[in-house]
Amino acid sequence: MKGWIHGLHAVEEAILAAPGRISRLVVAAGRDDGPVRRLLEAARTRGIAVERRPPREVEQLAGKGVVHQGVVAHLADAAESDPEALLDAAPAPALVVVLDGVEDPHNLGAIVRSAAAAGAHAVFVPEHRAAGLSSAAVKASAGAALRLPVARTGNLAAFLRRLKEKGIWIVGLDQEGEPLWTGFDLRQPIALVLGGEGKGLRRLTREHCDAMLALPLQGGVESLNVSVAAGIALYEVVRQRRSR
Asked: Which end of the chain is more exposed for a tag (fewer CB within 10 A), N or C?
């Protein structure tokens, strides 16, 4: 992504993970609390100049109605990650996340953060009808989207076939799945596939899955937010691989 990002966590993560991409760092005049001082020190040690501006100017840079916490940074564009190169570089056993039409940038950001925390190697999203790495997604990931590669794929079905050719199991998460999320060997190379809000996995995506796992729901709840479901499934992978 390129453009303005906002919020203490997202901007601090950008300073730590991608200092060379920061072309401007703007902090509201009068902000001098502990978190801001830590951010300023991180910027100083990496040679990033800090501009102090009135709070109204910071709000204009961040965008109306955005919760910016008095901190914004402008990122220069970065080269897009190559899906093939990411797959080749993934250590064994691979763990990647594939999203089939997640459109809410906040859900994308939350999924990226969970994927990074669980040790996934990359997140793949379609080029069309799906959220990309906007400033909202980066903020929702608390900056993790600047550390974990997020790559666009063209034809999702073709990409899933390519994953299979590389020996990666395609595991979809769906309420109609069998078995439950704990009933499949996730110690193998895994691509965890999740569908978009409301519609879930598309038919063609389902057909390319080697297994469809389900999360049990009780109390009249019909579904979970996709980012919550992703976190549960990712940490089942962690549990199984650590138990080995």
From this structure: C
C-alpha dist (Å) from residue 219 to 92, 94, 216: 39, 35, 10
Per-residue exposure over 156-178, b if at least 16 CB sit within 10 Å of its own CB, e if not: beebbeebeeeebbbbbbbeebe
DSSP state of 20: G
User: Is this prediction's pTM over 0.85?
Assistant: no
Q: What is the pLDDT of residues 100-138, one digit of tens each?
A: 989 999 999 999 999 999 999 999 999 888 888 787 888
Q: What would the pLDDT profile of 144-187 be if each residue is shown by its tens digit?
A: 888 899 999 989 999 999 999 999 999 999 887 787 889 999 99
Q: Which one of 75, 100, 125 terminates a domain?
A: 75
For residue 44, what are the domain limits? 3-75
Question: What order do you get walking across the sheet with 3-6 strand by strand?
Answer: 3-6, 71-75, 22-28, 51-53
List CB contacts of 75: < 8 A, sequence separation 6 or more: 1, 2, 3, 4, 5, 14, 18, 21, 22, 23
Query: How many beta carbons lie within 10 A of that of residue 9, not counting itself?
Result: 18
Return all residues near 114 (Cβ < 8 A) that are at least 6 apart.
227, 230, 231, 234, 235
Domain at 38, CATH number: 3.30.1330.30
Backbone φ and ψ of 43, nearest 5°: -65, -40
Strand partners, 52: 27
